[in-house]
Amino acid sequence: MVVAITGAVVGIGGLLLNRRGMKDQNRQQVAANQALENKSRLDETQMNLNAAMKRAEDAEARETRKQGRIDVLEKQVDALQQEVDEAHLYRRQLISALSAEHRNEMSKLVDDLATLRSVVVDEIAKSAADTVLERTTHPRNALPAPEDDPS
Amino acid sequence: MSVVRKVAEDEMSWRARAYLFITALQNALIGLSCITLDDTEAFSGDGWRVVRDLMPMWIWGILFVIGGLHLFGAAARGSELWARVSMPMSAVLTALWAAAFVLAFKDGGAVSPVGTIIAAALTAKDLLICSQPLRLPFEPLVKEYASSKAA
Lengths: 151, 151
Known about the structure:
The complex is a heterodimer of chains A (151) and B (151). Chain A is mostly helical and 151 residues long. Helix content of chain A is 90%, strand content 0%. The radius of gyration of chain A is 62 Å and the shape is rod-shaped. Chain B is mostly helical and 151 residues long. Helix content of chain B is 72%, strand content 0%. In chain B, helix 4 (80-107) runs antiparallel to helix 5 (114-131). Classes of the chains: A mainly alpha (151), B mainly alpha (151).
């Protein structure tokens, strides 16, 4: 009887412990499945993050190259602007010199013109005086003056 | 991205299989001993009196051999269902012998309690295995993390 009871107790106990073991098993399986799912999502997220970082790095590299080209172009623009400014300065200086020369020439011309006017006026006055003198000394109806004997 | 292998729903851990195999060997050898040494002096001592009174040794042998074969099948197939049937059977058989040895020791038939201790310990171990999961769903995940950490 004792042995039979012992056997029965152990048998029932074994079945109950079996049930407990299976419950633990199922709980662990569910947890493991969830962990695997989470890991899979994490791996996917990590992959997407790596791809995004790679894209960002590529974009940054492109941006850096672009900025480098922009810097070179800006330097070229500055150099060209300097050339243009120098050309403008030279042009202004040239214009200024030409204007000064022009003014000098004009003033010379004006002076010459004034001189010429005065000469013309003098000549006209002299001619008029000569005419008056001639008319005074030699009237129009008077006989011509004897001609000087060349011999 | 690494893909962690998901443990199949019926995949048994190698530890559980090893335990089942050892228990199968234990039961099979005990059963064969009972069958082959039935009419000899091997089980003629007073310590075996209660065991012999319950059932002839050859019947015990058949029961142990059947239990051992079932356990071999469970270990080979990795079947949780077979294991959860075999383990309580093994626990009951060893518990019956433990109870018989206790009675024999109490009656003065058995001089040493070692047989009782061993049989009771085997019963307890079998019941402990019944209460535990036979699969480790986290094992692939742990291996994955351990290998990646080592790397």
